[in-house]
Amino acid sequence: MKSQLLSINDLSTADIHSILSTAAELERITDGPTKKLPTLRGRTVVNLFFEDSTRTRISFETAAKRLSADVINFSAKGSSVSKGESLKDTAQTLQAMGADAVVIRHGSSGAAQRLADSGWISATVINAGDGTHEHPTQALLDAFTISKSFPDRKSDFSGLRVAIVGDILHSRVARSNVLLLSKLGASVTLIAPPTLLPVGVETWPVKISYNMDEQLEEFDVVMMLRIQIERMSNFFFPSEREYSRQYGLNEERLLRMKKSAIVMHPGPMNRGLEISASSADSSRSVIVDQVGNGVLTRMAVLYLLLGGAALTEVGQ
Predict the structure, then answer these.
(1) How many angstroms separate the CA atoms of 300 and 24, rounded?
(2) What are the pLDDT digits (tens) for 144-192?
(3) Which residues contact 75 (CB under 8 A, 6 or more apart)?
(4) Residue 83 a catalytic site member
(5) What is the pLDDT of residues 100-138, one digit of tens each?
(6) Which residue of 16, 82, 262, 312 is most buried, as measured by CB atoms within 10 A?
């Protein structure tokens, strides 16, 4: 693997397989008496979050602590950033503190790449979501969740049909998932109104549909995306009620899905808008599993990027 994780494009198929297999081994080890591993003892991981987040920040914090790293949570709100401090000044402060890894979440696309390429900091940079660009660890945890739901496939998703439904335009999760799932051989279909599809989407390795009901019975995975009202400055659909009627996953649509199909959502959910409460809480839903798998996958990423003892030795 490269020394940074900024995009799914940074990962080869072999890298992805390595991360997923490491996450599976970490799950095996931590399900036993060894809950905390000494691998990153003495290392410092900084969560540098310029955007609000609960799941991602806590997931990275838990992952780092389970590997015995020291964790510093740095939020833009209430910090010098809110007083006008630049990304450069913040990075140099973290460098002086001896950060070994910086997990950055930022509202501007390309911010993680800027930090990694700047020379301001020598730490490993991990992209925890930048603007509408990418969110690579979310895609990795989604792939890990799928691999556990279809254990006969492991990390070969050839022939697997995945629908990603909703606000593709503003979704960094969708972009990272398209890149990763297509690398693993899955067939991905984006389902959304035309107004919620980005310019140039026809060049992505996907199929496109404007009709939620057209092929619903054929998908193995249905991934619902949150409608990101906070990123919208225009009207992208007539009303929330109309959107839910056309593109929401409700009980009727859930019953039409394959018996083996699973429901996913990166969270947080708008219950009653893109997904009904009964669909989110159904036996087909792996949404809660995604949260737990996120910790394991981020442990694997930190483990592989920052190094340490052989995993087989740690688990003994």
Answers:
(1) 9
(2) 999 999 998 877 999 999 999 999 999 999 999 999 999 999 999 999 9
(3) 49
(4) yes
(5) 999 999 999 999 999 999 999 999 999 999 999 999 999
(6) 262
In contact, 185 and 209? CB cutoff 8 Å:
no
Q: Say yes or no to pLDDT of 315 above 70.
A: no
Q: 220 and 161 in contact (C-beta within 8 Å)?
A: yes
Query: Which of 114, 133, 135, 161 is an active site residue?
Result: 135
Q: How many CA atoms lie within 13 A of 159 on its CB side?
A: 5
DSSP string across 103-161: EEEESSTTHHHHHHHSSS--SEEEEEEETTTB-HHHHHHHHHHHHHHSTTTTT--TT-E
Share of the chain above pLDDT 70, in %: 91
Catalytic, out of 43, 57, 66, 105: 105
Per the CB < 8 A criterion, the answer to whether 303 and 26 are in contact is yes
Task: Give the whole-angstrom CA distance, residue 102 versus residue 76.
Answer: 14
Active site residue 55: yes
DSSP category for residue 237: S
Q: Which domains does the chain have, with CATH numbers?
A: 8-135+292-314 (3.40.50.1370), 136-286 (3.40.50.1370)
Which residue of the set 39, 44, 56, 137 is catalytic? 56
The single residue of 55, 65, 88, 154 carrying the catalytic annotation is 55
CA-nearest of 184, 175, 163, 164 to 19 is 184
Catalytic residue among 83, 203, 259, 312: 83
